[in-house]
Design brief:
heterodimer; A: mainly alpha; 10 helices; B: 480 residues; 2 domains; 4-stranded antiparallel β-sheet; 13 helices; 12 strands
Chain lengths: 178, 480
């Protein structure tokens, strides 16, 4: 080289990669749990700050699962802190959170959705009707593009359980569409 | 059992199966009538679901939050990924002609290409591509324009081109990356004809002299992706031990990273280009039946005159296609290279500003491929081609760079460049250290001989230091 060996901060490299790859899907995911954008942004910000503090060697091989797990925990911490979370089973948490949507947000979303063709609209409403657990798994699979294994690590369930949940939800949607 | 009720089928559609499971499902499907239509339809549904989800607004943090994080990590923000650009991009989508979008949608679905972003995004980007990119085609066997670089001394042809046929896909994957979703697709083209379907027994491996090599004639083995190896951990470990007068356990030294921890005098790319590919081929010093292919990639030093030395080029994939008519088997030295090439799942590499990346392949040439053979220059005479796909850090274009190496350029290792001899020496040293050199002609004396006359400019003294290490290691090993 023309230059001496470069000093690289692997944490910074990892953070940059994570930001560019996961910021949007992570924020969307947080919104799906928390229901509003402001708190979701905070949860995502906390997640990335926490990531930077990690030893990159320990997280880089399971980055996606790590990030979604931390963000998810952060979201539920926020819910707990604000005492909005009653003692509910995990399944019902989702149903609760979707009711605390910011009205402006849901209006904007409704406007967006009005533009969709009828099939997609129908599909979306069917996804909304899935049980909460299926909905969360589907979102992680189809929106955030996590693998079964990563979803399993995030939600602390087995990979084959993930496969089963995706299969049931997917099958249900297909049948309903037909 | 009705195969439709099997969660494995869904897993198959979503690319979640490992190779073994996949072949079982494929077999089941081949025995079941109408299964192709079923799979196609299911994949369309998967695409639709993704598309539906993609209608969620592209939520992000505020720019203040993001800058706060980046500031914490002392990285300079890159404007190209700023949310403003994203927003204008999405706004652009809305103005697209609806009918056209619909046509695109049907068309792409017919190809059952899994879509992770909205199709209107694809249409827009293809539209942009017309403005931004040249219209060169790379296809199997097609010859693109031979560009800029001189052919000698290593007979490397640079076929500089943007992918048009795959352009839509390239662009699409770029959008996917920008939107933060989906794995990157590696557009597959074969310069040397279609590979044969995998034989389940051999897994595309070929056994030569009792060792296994990847067989480029087989599907999944034609391409090999090589990593950028930015970590200097193995080098640091070796150095620590050497300074302490000891030899580390070779199993803890990653040969690929060790090779890459040294600096090489690879040519820098021409201005405007982001990468230069240097490549050469010579016979293997420790096995006369085999050859070594030395690939040296140099990334442009974009920020040479700027204060910060930042990570600039990302989303890079460097891969080699082997010509099965010339190469009977190959392996990437110093890497765990047992995994089959997976077009949908090869990780992005991070390449640093000005970085030199080195890959050494050990190949077994086909019988009849030798130094003296003289053929006219065409794809038949190529041993391998090297391909780099990347996202231009400045204008976010997806670009591809291809170079090929003719087997005619093979030389005796004594005549190889200093860079190649030095890299070979490090590789040989690593093999000996890890106890992999048994049965070959590799000795510390041989690696010393390789390195000794390969000092080059050695600006930082690394190479001389390494030569001392070889001598030290030899002495220490002899005393054991």
């Amino acid at each position: 080289m023309s230059a001496s060996p470069r000093v690289i901060d692997p944490s910074a490299v990892l953070l940059r990669r994570a930001l560019s790859d996961f910021e949007v899907p992570l924020t969307r995911y947080a919104v799906s749990i928390l229901g509003d954008i402001e708190r979701s942004r905070d949860a995502v910000q906390d997640t990335f700050i926490k990531l930077y503090a990690q030893d990159p060697k320990k997280v880089e091989n399971k980055l996606k699962a790590w990030i979604f797990t931390v963000c998810r925990n952060r979201c539920y911490d926020i819910l707990k802190k604000e005492k909005r979370m009653k003692r509910l089973e995990g399944d019902e948490v989702h149903a609760l959170s979707s009711s605390i949507d910011d009205p402006a947000q849901s209006m904007a979303r409704a406007e967006d959705r009005a533009k969709l063709n009828s099939d997609l609209r129908k599909l979306l409403s069917m996804i909304e009707e899935l049980p909460a657990r299926q909905r969360e798994v589907m979102r992680l699979k189809f929106q955030a593009d996590l693998s079964y294994k990563e979803i399993g690590e995030t939600l602390e369930i087995t990979t084959s359980n993930v496969g089963f949940i995706v299969h049931s939800a997917f099958k249900k949607l297909r049948e309903a569409m037909n | 059992m009705n195969i439709e009720d099997d969660p494995k089928l869904t897993a198959y559609i979503l690319n979640e199966l490992d190779c073994d499971e996949e072949s079982v499902i494929k077999k089941q499907l081949s025995e079941s009538e109408g299964s192709n239509a079923l799979i196609r339809e299911a994949k369309e549904y998967a695409s639709m679901i993704r598309e539906a989800y993609d209608m969620d607004p592209a939520h992000r943090m505020t720019s203040q939050q993001r800058e706060g994080i980046l500031k914490d990590s002392e990285i300079v923000a890159v404007t190209g990924t700023s949310p403003d650009k994203m927003l204008s991009f999405r706004d652009g989508l809305k103005s697209l002609d609806k009918e056209k979008t619909e046509a695109e949608r049907i068309n792409v679905w017919k190809k059952s290409f899994p879509m992770l972003v909205s199709f209107s995004a694809a249409a827009l980007v293809i539209g942009m591509a017309v403005v931004l990119l040249k219209h060169e085609q790379i296809g199997a066997g097609s010859k693109s324009k031979i560009a800029q670089k001189p052919l000698d001394p290593f007979s490397v042809t640079v076929l500089d081109s943007d992918t048009t046929d795959e352009q839509g896909r390239d662009k699409l994957s770029w959008v996917q990356r920008q939107m933060g979703v989906g794995p990157v697709k590696f557009p597959i083209t074969y310069r040397y004809g279609q590979p044969k379907p995998l034989n389940e027994i051999s897994e595309g491996l070929v056994f030569l002299d009792g060792e296994s090599f990847r067989n480029p004639a087989m599907e999944g083995q034609r391409w090999s992706v090589f990593p950028s190896n930015v970590s200097s951990k193995s080098y640091d470990l070796l150095r620590e031990f050497m300074l302490a007068g000891d030899v580390p356990d070779g199993k803890n030294v990653h040969i690929g990273s060790l090779i890459n921890a040294f600096e090489y005098d690879y040519e820098y790319p021409n201005s405007g280009e982001k990468f230069a590919i240097n490549a050469e081929v010579a016979n293997c010093p420790w096995d006369q039946e085999r050859w070594l292919i030395h690939i040296g990639v140099r990334a442009a030093d974009i920020n040479k005159n700027k204060e910060k030395d930042i990570l600039l080029v990302r989303e890079v994939r460097m891969a080699v296609e082997f010509n099965p008519d010339r190469v009977a088997g190959y392996r990437l030295i110093g890497e765990d290279d047992t995994k089959k090439f997976d077009a949908n799942n090869s990780p992005n590499q991070i390449v640093l500003d000005g970085q030199a990346i080195t890959a050494l392949y050990e190949i077994v040439p086909m019988e009849g491929t030798d130094f003296s053979e003289s053929l006219t220059r065409n794809a038949d005479s190529e041993l391998v081609s090297v391909r780099i796909d990347y996202t231009d850090p400045e204008n976010k274009d997806s670009r591809s760079l291809i170079s090929s190496i003719s087997h005619k350029s093979a030389v005796a290792w004594e005549e190889a460049s200093e860079d190649m001899r030095f890299a070979t020496s490090v590789a040989g040293y690593g093999l000996l250290l890890g106890g992999y050199g048994k049965g070959s002609l590799a000795t510390y004396d041989l690696v010393l001989q390789l390195a000794k006359d390969a000092l080059g400019e050695d600006k930082n003294g690394q190479r001389s230091e390494f030569i001392d290490w070889i001598k030290k290691t030899k002495n220490l090993e002899e005393r054991r």
